Request: fold
Amino acid sequence: MSINGISPSMIPISGGQSGGGQNPQIKALEQKLMQLNSEKKKAAQNHDEEKVKELEKQIQEVEQKIEKLKQKEQKKQQQQKESGLDEESKENPPYLQDPTGWYA
Reply:
């Protein structure tokens, strides 16, 4: 198989994450997506329209699952960031701060 035969839809979509930090579920689904795209390409070459339609449906389902997991992951990261800021505020609340940098 040549590199030129790879369509953009076969390349895994990775949001802000890369490699080791990525959710293993997302990684597995992206691998499955690549496999389904490869099967779809073979079915198209064999003029098996029914198989192509079936695979397109599966591809859409997998893409939706990936998107949902990525959104869930982003929410989780956002909540962690916000809770980290809250912890910082608790340690050093604004009412204890003086504009000159001295604590009251």
